[in-house]
Structure formats: structure tokens, C-alpha cells
Design brief:
The structure holds two protein chains of two kinds. Chain A is α/β, with parallel strands linked by helices. Chain A is built from ten helices and ten strands. A six-stranded mixed β-sheet of chain A has the order 6-7-8-3-9-10, with helices on both faces. Chain B is an all-alpha fold. Chain B is built from 13 helices and no strands. In chain B, α4 (about 100-115) packs across α6 (about 140-160) and α7 packs across α8. Chain B is flat and about 70 Å long. The chains are: A alpha/beta, B mainly alpha. The interface of A and B includes residues 51, 88, 95, 96 and 97 of A. Bound molecules: adenosine-5'-triphosphate (ATP) and magnesium ion (MG). Adenosine-5'-triphosphate binds near residues 41, 44 and 57 of chain A.
């Protein structure tokens, strides 16, 4: 089994408004998948469905089937907190908690029952190293995380997500609030992370999708128009609408 | 020509308005200042160590307000002790758990209305509800004050819960935290300032309350510990002020108490501003 997520005929409504229509997609393990498409086409909505963050929004209705490692994520047997531990999330705007850098990273492990100080220290260091921010913060772990720069905060949020040892990482435009240098650091980081994790990343930046991702999914008006290897989709798109979008004719 | 006289007229009108406004500001400021100075001048000379540290005695015909000071402290402690968990709990439930937004709206509206009701009505209800069952005592007064201050604590806590960014909650849920953990670790620390503000406002209200307490807590001046004190009738400073001035004509003592209350009020407002500044600074970090 090389797919980690498999979605069949999934539809989603916000109240009366249908935001996703008949989505079918298989996301391969240990790869980077980019979601592209114009604003409002449902990228974030779909991303948040995968770890059931949409549960927090009232009046959302979902039909169809989503399997994570062959388990139906909407089955009543599934512990949604455990699902979110397996499928972590990084948000568009860096959102570190107003506490120390250490406590931010330790938040997840503590949530899942790790209290041993030595073990926590290890996890915090490993997560911060994996997120390529260890050297910048190792002398100020007890300082408030809100004192970091935007780029550092976003890498801290990645570290925080990694600290619960997820299998998969959902990133919703993780670099859109960042400067070019921080952006390229995060891109490098994401490419390293795919050794260990499956990554799905929403981006509005075509170059970023080309640079970073292995697969690309193009969404339009709630539909998944095309899902292909990134090289193929950008060199020979099958659908006219994809071609129009990536050549900048609309969007 | 016409225009010129019009603009001239307009100008003199502006000047007139400015003078009127200056006058009203001046009047307001001097009234406040006069009140402050008058009370302090009348009160402070009457504040003696003996007054502060003894209880009144019919034998020596001396008046001491130590019991009233202690009663005030007891009633503040008892009220906050009960109203805090209730008010904060209700606020958390309403903002974080309740899913029926219409119901929440109604409760918020009711709370808003409750906090505007004249306190004597609380006194009346408190008398029927508490004093008639447990006797006139500080505890009955405290329970009445709990009802009175519940909306305040609830609303200030709620307001500050609403300022906790949604992104913190999302971040915590995204890590697999359950509802209660998110509330306890991410939401509650963000509403400490609201709780403290609510407490300070409530203490101010308790200090100033007389009507509701006259009905429920009585006006005895017995010296007690906190447990016995709460079970016995007793006057707070404000009630004692009323009693000494109105029933006994002891205006010196009344003004002494007034001066103390005045200083306490100024102090409470000062602390409230400090707390708000501190949290605003911490938030903008
Ligand atoms: N909480 C919500 N309630 C109601 N409608 C929503 C909600 N969130 C999103 N929508 C609607 O669903 C559609 C898809 O929104 P979504 O945020 O998924 O788009 P997106 O592709 O991520 O856009 P962007 O690129 O601007 O982030 C939009 O029409 C949006 O208005
Ligand atoms: Mg989006």
C-alpha cells in the first residue's frame, strides 16, 4: 500500500453552499503533493477535511469516503484526537502559543501523555532540529515564542507539529506570510521532511509547486480538475482549464 | 458682504460654544475636586489608630470600626470565593461549549440587563431567599452579592475569552488536544485579565453596596473571626457609614469611613488601570 490517503466521491457543504464536488484522489506516501487553484476553490476546505479540522465549524456536511491508511476517518471508532496526532497541520499564519519556545514544542507530546523531562527534552531538540531552527533558538528555549520573527515562528510551528511524530503534515500556504529568505528555508525544509513524512501543501505560487512538489492537484470551483505528477501537469496538462490556469490566463 | 457677516457670526458662535464647553469642564472638575477635598478634610482628622483598631463600646462610649473593616473583608472574600467559579465557569461554557448561539445571545442579554437593576431589588430578593431561611447574617449578604456580581464576572470573562485568537484553538486542536485541554492550557490563560478586571469591578461594587446589605446582612458591630463573622449579622463599612450618620448622628466617624472608602476606591481604580496596562503590554509582545 503506497497511498496514505484515498478519497472517493467526497462532497462537502457549508450549510447550503457546496464547497467540494465529487473529489477523488489518492495521495502517495512520503511524497510532497501541492494543491493549487484560484482563491475560494476549496483547497483549504479539502485540506482541513483530511484531519477533520472541519469538525470545529458548525453546519458542515460531508458525504463520500475518506480513508487514511485504510481506515475510514469518519467512522465512530476513530479517535479524532489520535487522527490529528497522525496528521499534523501547519497554518497559513504562524500561530505559536503565547508561551515559551520549549513549551510550544512540548505541547503536543504533553497532550499525548509524555511527562518525563528527559524524554521531553529529547523530543523538543529532535523536533527543532528537524524543523531547522534548533541553532537559532537553542539558547533561548525558555523565552516567549512570540518574540521570534515570522519565519522563525513558522518553523517553530512546524517543529511543534513534528513533535507529536505525525505520519503526515498538512500545510496551508505555509510561506504566504513570509519573506523570500524564510520562504526558501521552509521550502528546503519541506523537501528534507519528505524523507520521513507525507506532505500536502497548499500554495498560490506556481514556481513553488514546481520547485518543491512531486504531485500537483489542481482545484477549480470545488472540483478536482487534474491530479498528476508535477512535471507532467506543468509540461503537458491534460485539461484545458489546467493549462489556462498555469499559464496565467485566469486565477 | 453677506457671506462675510455670516462667517463672522459663525465664528463668534464657535467661540461661544468653546467657552461654554470650557465652563462645563471646569465645573465638573471642580465639583469632583471639591467632593474629594471636602470628604478628606472632614474625614482624615477623625481617623485615629483607636478608631481603626477597636470595636464600639457602650461602656466607654467610644466608637471603633474594626468590626466593620473585618466584616467588609469577610464579605468580599466570601463573595469572590463563590462568584468566581460560578461566573468563570458559566463564561467558559457559553463561549467554548454552548452550540446554541441563540440561547447564548439570550443569556448574554439577560446578564446585561441584570447588571443594570437597582441593588435594592437584589436586597429584597436576597432577604426573602436567604435571610428568611438562614437569618440575617453576612453570609446571606454575601450570597445576595454573588447574584448581583455574577453577571459582571461572567461578562468580563466572556469578553476576554473572545479576544483569545481562534488560531490558538486551531493550533491546539491540530495537535490532537481534546476540548478541555485546549480550554485549560490555551484559552484560560488568555482570559486571566478579564477575570481580574471582573474581580476588581466587583470588589468596588461590594465596597459601595449598602441597600442590598441593609436588608440581608444587618448592621451589627460585633468583633468576630471569619467563620463566626459570616454566620452573624454585621455591617460593612458602607453600611456602618449609613448607620453612624443617620441613626447616631456621629458625623465625624461617618466622614472618617467616607475618607477610607474614598481612598480605597481610588486605589482600586488605580490597580485596575495597572492590571489592564500590564496585560495590554503582554498581549502586544
Ligand atoms: N467556515 C466557512 N463557512 C462557510 N463557507 C466557507 C467557510 N470556509 C470556506 N467557505 C467557502 O468555501 C469555499 C472554499 O473556501 P476555501 O477556504 O477552501 O478556499 P481556498 O481554495 O483555500 O481559497 P484561498 O486560496 O483564498 O485560501 C469558498 O467559497 C468559501 O467562501
Ligand atoms: Mg485557503
Amino acid at each position: 500500500m503506497s497511498n496514505i490517503i484515498s478519497v472517493k466521491d467526497m462532497c462537502l457543504w457549508y450549510g447550503e453552499h457546496q464547497a467540494l464536488k465529487n473529489i477523488n484522489i489518492e495521495i502517495p506516501k512520503k511524497s510532497i503533493t501541492a494543491f493549487i487553484g484560484p482563491s475560494g476553490c476549496g483547497k483549504s476546505t479539502f485540506l482541513k477535511t483530511l484531519n477533520r479540522m472541519n469538525d470545529l465549524i458548525p453546519n458542515v456536511k460531508i458525504t463520500g469516503d475518506i480513508r487514511y491508511e485504510d481506515t475510514d476517518i469518519f467512522s465512530p471508532k476513530v479517535d479524532v484526537n489520535h487522527l490529528r496526532k497522525e496528521i499534523g497541520m501547519v497554518f497559513q499564519k504562524p500561530n505559536p502559543f503565547p508561551m515559551s519556545i520549549y513549551d510550544n514544542v512540548a505541547y503536543g507530546p504533553r497532550t499525548h501523555g509524555i511527562t518525563n523531562k528527559i524524554q521531553l527534552d529529547e523530543i523538543v531538540e529532535f523536533a527543532l532540529r528537524d524543523a531547522a531552527i534548533w541553532n537559532e533558538v537553542k539558547d533561548r528555549l525558555k523565552k516567549n515564542a512570540l518574540g521570534l520573527s515570522g519565519g522563525q515562528q513558522q518553523r517553530l510551528c512546524i517543529a511543534r507539529a513534528l513533535a507529536v511524530q505525525p505520519k503526515m503534515l498538512l500545510m496551508d500556504e505555509p510561506t504566504s506570510a513570509l519573506d523570500p529568505i524564510s520562504t526558501s528555508r521552509i521550502e528546503e525544509l519541506v523537501m528534507e521532511l519528505k524523507e520521513k513524512y507525507t506532505i500536502v501543501m497548499v500554495t498560490h505560487n506556481m514556481q513553488q509547486a514546481v520547485r518543491v512538489s512531486d504531485y500537483t492537484a489542481f482545484f477549480l470551483l470545488g472540483e478536482l480538475v487534474e491530479f498528476e505528477k508535477t512535471d507532467n501537469i506543468f509540461s503537458q496538462p491534460q485539461d484545458k482549464r489546467t493549462e489556462d490556469y498555469i499559464t496565467g490566463r485566469f486565477g | 458682504m453677506l457671506n462675510r457677516s455670516l462667517s463672522k457670526k459663525r465664528k463668534s458662535f464657535e467661540v461661544l460654544m468653546k467657552i461654554l464647553m470650557l465652563l462645563s469642564v471646569g465645573l465638573t472638575a471642580s465639583l469632583v475636586l471639591f467632593l474629594l477635598v471636602y470628604v478628606l478634610v472632614q474625614g482624615i482628622p477623625n481617623i485615629t489608630w483607636e478608631l481603626l483598631s477597636t470595636k464600639p463600646s457602650y461602656l466607654t462610649e467610644k466608637i471603633g470600626i474594626l468590626p466593620d473593616i473585618l466584616n467588609t473583608v469577610y464579605i468580599v472574600i466570601a463573595t469572590l470565593f463563590l462568584v468566581l467559579p460560578l461566573g468563570v465557569g458559566a463564561a467558559i461554557y457559553l463561549t467554548e461549549y454552548a452550540s446554541n448561539k441563540k440561547m447564548v445571545g439570550i443569556i448574554e442579554y439577560a446578564a446585561e440587563t441584570l447588571s443594570g437593576i437597582p441593588s435594592i431589588i437584589y436586597g429584597l430578593v436576597g432577604m426573602l431567599l436567604f435571610s428568611n431561611n438562614m437569618g440575617t447574617c453576612l453570609m446571606a449578604g454575601a450570597l445576595t452579592l454573588v447574584i448581583m456580581n455574577l453577571p459582571t464576572i461572567m461578562r468580563t470573562t466572556q469578553e476576554s475569552l473572545k479576544t483569545v485568537p481562534q488560531s490558538y484553538r486551531e493550533g491546539a486542536f491540530g495537535l490532537g488536544a481534546g476540548k478541555w485541554r485546549v480550554v485549560r492550557t490555551v484559552v484560560l490563560p488568555g482570559c486571566v485579565d478579564g477575570v481580574i478586571t471582573g474581580c476588581i469591578l466587583s470588589v468596588g461594587r461590594i465596597l459601595g453596596e449598602s441597600a442590598a446589605l441593609l436588608f440581608t446582612a444587618g448592621f451589627a458591630h460585633a468583633l468576630n473571626g471569619i467563620i463566626d463573622g459570616l454566620a452573624a449579622p454585621g455591617a460593612t463599612l458602607t453600611v456602618a457609614l449609613y448607620v453612624y450618620a443617620k441613626e447616631q448622628g456621629e458625623f465625624g466617624v461617618a466622614f472618617a469611613i467616607a475618607a477610607i472608602l474614598m481612598v480605597l476606591t481610588v486605589l482600586i481604580n488605580f490597580v485596575a488601570t495597572l492590571v489592564q496596562k500590564y496585560f495590554a503590554k503582554r498581549r502586544s509582545l
